[in-house]
């Protein structure tokens, strides 16, 4: 399923800019996994490897309209989809009052 989504996303990327040329395309599917790679001449690229258990490691990258190089690496396995990037949002820190309340609850468990 993930491979189908990846191929569709890459096709949409190519269709969005009809002047982009493919520099490298690899789609190697074996009984024990796959290797997929797409490199476009506008700086966009995607690569992924997968094994027989459905585990996938990959990366995709592009240049944003603002000129920023965006790179997202990911792992998809029994723990779900796990993207990593400097540009992904992160949650704000937990407020001190909440940390204090959690510590109090842990130190004073309910008697029920």
From TrEMBL:
The keyword Magnesium does not apply. Keywords: Cuticle, Signal. Coiled coil: none annotated. One of its GO terms (cellular component) is chitin-based extracellular matrix. This is Larval cuticle protein 3. The keyword Cell cycle does not apply. Residues 1-16 form the signal peptide.
């Amino acid at each position: 399923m993930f491979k189908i989504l990846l191929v569709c996303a890459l096709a949409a990327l190519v269709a969005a800019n009809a002047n982009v040329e493919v520099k490298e395309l690899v789609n190697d599917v074996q009984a024990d996994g796959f290797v997929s790679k797409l490199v476009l001449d506008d700086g966009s690229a995607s690569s992924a490897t997968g094994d027989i258990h459905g585990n996938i490691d990959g990366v995709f990258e592009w240049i944003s309209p603002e000129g920023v190089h965006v790179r997202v690496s990911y792992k998809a396995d029994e723990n779900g989809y796990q993207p990593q990037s400097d540009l992904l949002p992160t949650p704000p820190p937990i407020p001190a009052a909440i940390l204090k309340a959690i510590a109090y609850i842990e130190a004073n468990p309910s008697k029920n």
